[in-house]
Design brief:
328 residues, alpha+beta, Phosphorylase Kinase, domain 1, 3-stranded antiparallel β-sheet, 10 helices
């Protein structure tokens, strides 16, 4: 198979080489490839970590567009994560969770996962283009918590909630959805035991990790709620609660430092929201919200009390313009 630059589509030497003009690592040109005698790959729409690619494809049986994530066989760790995430995702059926349609292996030994085609952008991309009003930030987190409520009820802990794993999609008329992405390091509650995590091999995204995730302690739904607290802080302030120069310093901050008050970053933010953030970011799990449902109810109550005339979500600027970036 030909290896090409993902931007200009000119040939490069191999998948490990980069395009001389754009400096991007080459990807296998799979346009026109047919998977499972059903899914025709049409165009590249995203590039993930460890050389994974995401393609728009046509499901010839159901006559609809889908997204196909392909993981090359040369990276055992990413392959294991992709397979595991696909398995976990296939067990979940909720509007706030990306739907898995099929998975299998390509002719050249790569692993693929077929998912619903999402149109919109990640919360991270939204933040890069525009700030959110507090009311809109609250709605994004409420929808995230609604999905997590379902996920946790199925006995699953996501373990990697962050702005790049939350996808905002437009429904029209100013309405929007939020979907959870990437269950690659998710675990069933029954599979996660204290001491399972070697501190030298911490799994997750350091900026969003709960203290017990860093130390290898027992994880449960409240570990995800800590990460949601980090997301809420970032949506409201535009920055992370802990920003350190080294990863070790970041771990210590999560373990020992109190997060800054929202008002110290932006004095216009309501103190009621600060209380929600502080409880979500409590060091001890027992001091956090007991469930996603409890945190969602608290946030919704505050939003309705503070912005009673807001009515339906003011989300045209939140959900538009739409970009074809499923992996961004």
């Amino acid at each position: 198979m030909d290896v090409v630059c993902p931007r200009c589509w000119e040939p490069v030497a191999d998948a490990g080489a980069s395009c001389a003009e754009h400096g991007l690592r080459g990807v296998v040109d799979r346009v026109g490839e047919v998977l499972a005698h059903r899914f025709v790959l049409m165009k590249l729409i995203g590039i993930g970590s460890r050389n994974t690619t995401v393609w728009e494809a046509r499901d010839t049986e159901l006559a609809q567009d889908v997204a196909v994530k392909i993981c090359p066989p040369v990276d055992p760790l990413e392959l294991e994560r992709t397979i595991h995430g696909t398995w976990v995702g296939s067990r979940l059926a909720h509007p706030g969770v990306t739907r898995v349609i099929e998975f299998g292996e390509t002719d050249d030994g790569a692993y693929y996962c077929v998912m619903e085609r999402l149109r919109g952008r990640t919360v991270q991309r939204v933040l890069e283009t525009q700030p959110l009003r507090p009311a809109d930030a609250a709605r994004v987190v409420e929808r995230t918590l609604e999905a997590l409520e379902y996920v946790h009820a199925q006995g699953v802990i996501h373990r990697d909630i962050k702005t790049t794993n939350l996808f905002v999609g437009a429904l029209g008329e100013g309405r929007f959805t939020v979907k959870l992405l990437d269950f690659g390091i998710a675990r069933l509650v029954t599979d996660v035991q204290p001491g399972d995590l070697d501190p030298s091999k911490i799994v997750g995204t350091p900026e969003y990790m709960a203290p017990e995730q860093i130390t290898g302690g027992e994880l449960d739904a409240r570990s995800d709620l800590y990460a949601v607290g980090v997301v809420l802080f970032r949506l409201l302030t535009g920055q992370l609660p802990f920003e350190e120069e080294t990863r070790q310093a970041l771990y210590l901050a999560h373990l020992e430092k109190a997060p800054p008050a929202l008002g110290s970053v932006d004095p216009t933010l309501p103190v009621e929201l600060d209380a929600v953030v502080r409880r979500a970011l409590a060091k001890a799990p027992e001091d956090r919200f007991a469930s996603a449902a409890e945190m969602r109810a608290a946030l919704r109550g505050i939003r309705r009390a503070l912005w009673p005339a807001d009515g339906r979500p003011v989300t045209r600027r939140l959900a538009y313009p739409i970009e074809d970036l499923q992996a961004g």
